[in-house]
Amino acid sequence: MKIVVIGGTGLIGSKTVERLRKKGHDVLAASPNSGVDTLTGKGLDEALAGANVVIDLANSPSFEDKAVMDFFQTAGHNLLKAEAAAGVQHHIALSIVGVERLQDSGYMRAKLVQEDLIKGSRIPYTIVHSTQFFEFLPGIVQSGTVGDTVHLSSAYVQPISSEDVADAMADVATSAPINGTIEIAGPEKIRLNEIAARFMKATNDTRKVVADPNTLYFGTKLLDGSLVPIGNARLGHIGFEGWFSHYQPRK
User: Fold this and answer.
1) For residue 106, what are the CA distances in angstroms to 39, 137, 158, 205?
2) Other C-beta atoms within 10 Å of 36: how many?
3) CA nearest neighbour of 167 among 189, 179, 181, 184
4) How far apart are CA 209 and CA 223, in angstroms?
5) b/e per residue, 134-172, with b = 16+ CB within 10 A?
6) Please, how many CA atoms are within 13 Å of residue 205, restricted to the half-sphere of its CB?
7) C-alpha span between 140 and 154 (Å, rounded)
8) What are phi and psi of 132, to 5 degrees?
9) Which segments of 62-158 does DSSP mark as H helices, in order?
10) Rounded mean pLDDT, 105-112
11) Helices and strands counted in the chain (H then E)
12) CB count, 10 Å around CB of 251?
C-alpha cells in the first residue's frame, strides 16, 4: 500500500515510517521540510495522490490556546479535504487518553475538535488514544520546577515508550479502519510524582519532588482516572527500566 505519514520525521513518525517500510509498503514521510504543510495545504494533493492510508501525527508548533486550536482546526480540515479528493481509504490519527475528560486544557480542547472533524468526515478512520510517552518526562519535570523543588500532581499515569506507540501505529495502518477509538498505554500504572522521582533519581537529579493533587498538569487539574485508560487497552511491552536503558538526553 501507499501510506502517507504526516509528521513522518518526528519522534513517532520516523519510527512508524521505518516499521512500515520494513513491511514492504510504499511510505511517504511528509512534513513541512519535505514540502507538505497541512496548515497551508501546500503539497497535500501531490503527496496524497494514490495513497491508501494516511497517518496524522502532526502537532502544533505552539501550545497557546488560540494557536493550537487554529492549528488542529485548519490542518484537520485541509488534510481531510485532500484525502477525500484522493480517495484515501483509512485515516488514522494519534490522540490522547483522557482527552474528553480534560477540557479545561486548551490543548485537549483542540485535540477533541480534531477528533470531531475526523468523525464528521466520510473517510473511514481509526483514532488511537495514547497515554503520555516516557520521552515526555524531562518536560514534565521541568514544567513543575519551582526553585529546587518539582511540584507535580499525584494522579495516576501509565506512560508508554515511543517504540510501543510506533508498533501500534504501524499495526493500525495495516489493519481495517474501525470507525472508532482504541487506547494504548504502558505496562505500569503509577503516580505522576513517583515516576518523575524515579526518572530524576536515575539521572542523578537531586531536586525534591513535591506531590500535590491540586498541581495543574499543563493547565488542567488531574484526577486519578484522568490520564489512564478505562477498560481494555493495548499495553506496551517496555517499562521504565527498559526505556531508560536507551535514554539519551537531548542536547
Assistant:
1) 18, 21, 22, 31
2) 26
3) 184
4) 19
5) bbebbebbeebeeeeebbbbbbbbbbbbbbbbbbbbbeb
6) 19
7) 13
8) -65, 145
9) 65-86, 106-120, 137-143
10) 94
11) 8, 14
12) 3
- Cβ(184)–Cβ(234) below 8 Å: yes
The C-alpha atoms of residue 77 and residue 114 are separated, in whole angstroms, by 9
Rounded CA Rg of the chain: 18
What is the average pLDDT across 227-244?
95
Q: And the C-alpha cell for 239? A: 517499562
Exposed/middle/buried for 24, CB within 10 Å: 0-12, 13-18, 19+? Answer: exposed
Query: What pairing do the DSSP bridges indicate for beta strands 180-185 and 190-191?
Result: unpaired
Residue entry with cell 464528521: 120
pTM listed for this prediction: 0.95
Contact 218, 110 (CB under 8 A): no
Provide the phi-psi class of 22: left if phi over 0, else alpha when psi is between -120 and 50, else beta. alpha
Residue closest to 57 by CA, chosen among 83, 89, 27, 95: 95
pLDDT band with cut points at 50, 70 and 90 for residue 251: low
